Amino acid sequence: MKAVRVTGLAAEGAESAPGAKRLELCDVARPERRTPSDVLVRVLCVGLDGTDREIVTEKYGVPPAGETALTIGHESLGVVVEAATDSFLKPGDAVCALVRRPCSDPDCTACRNGQQDFCESGNYVERGIKGANGYLSEYYVEDARFLVKVPVSAMAYGVLAEPQSIVEKVWDEVQRIQQRLVWQPQTAVVLGSGPLGLLAAFTCRCLGLETIVWSKSPQDSAGAALVRDCGVVYKEAESNSGSESASLNDYLRQAGKRADLIFECTGYSPLAFEAMTALGPNGVLALLGVTPGNRSIQLPADRVNQGLVLENKCVLGSVNASRKDFETGLFRLQQIEAKFPGLLRRLVTDRLKLEDVSGLDFSRIGIKAVIDLVPQEQWTELVNQAGGEAVYSFSV
């Protein structure tokens, strides 16, 4: 079968030789089920994100043990081909897959209790990222525990379940944290207008929050149009004239807005620290973006510390997500589609074929790229249309 792989990788803890990494379309063996809980899945499409770009262009990405290549892609939508008769899944079911797998450290309380997204040892495995092949191949095999059924009605945007799960994990954590007080948030600020930032903005609108997106992308960008079309204020962070623009703090103060919740989705660390001072009293800042590097900055440490302490601010970091977050994410995607029809379809600006990926220039992607391994018009032939809707257990 065909798979897209990054070759020339070094083992964990080592650096690849300069120029050794290449993105290639390869022939690999089709995987087979080995245990009763294994499920064989045919891949319909895979979404690409900033992590995939960093694996290709930065010092990132770890191949499976003993190998020097990694199949990328961790945002998946597929259809079950083979599953055990006593599995909760059956052939024809549409599914997406979780990314992280628990570590084997007996002292890691989180992984021992099925919360590998909070792994304490750092020895977790992530498909398509760290220590295990991803989903950008014609087929994959996965334990049924890590597969989530996708409603037939959500097939068109089901590949967005993974990034949406990250947003839902943050919202779940924020609700738990804010049980500390009577909290009535009014305004959310999203930093960045990439796919994750846009999904965060859509979600905030579904939650009834006044929402502001602060981004370097120009006012006439596709992302800016998307957020405006769901009632979000878009603020370009830099002036086209080249003059120094107002800071986030200045903008919020001049607009008379208090940021009750901030999603930092850029990975630009100086902005993360600025957001700590821009955050309103009792507010929560969620840091979601990560960029490789060793940037250093000067900051008013005393003022940042005073604000966090005296105004009861909370800063949390979050990455990856659990099964519950995927399930909530699928619910939320349906809610977004119902409230803002067509918005999710417009989020995916580039639909490519498998053979296009090896020559892909990530800098030319509009907002979101999705690789179709099976043409969309053929999905209905593979998916069981009468299989019943997915039943979930979650809170929103």
UniProtKB/TrEMBL annotation:
The species this protein belongs to is: Paenibacillus allorhizosphaerae
Query: Any idea where the Alcohol dehydrogenase-like N-terminal domain is?
Result: 36-151
Molecular function GO terms recorded: L-threonine 3-dehydrogenase activity
Q: Please state what the protein is called.
A: L-threonine 3-dehydrogenase
EC number per UniProt: 1.1.1.103
Database matches in InterPro entries:
ADH-like_N, Glu_dehyd_C
Signal peptide region? none
Keyword set includes Cell division: no
Top-rank lineage group of the source organism: Bacteria
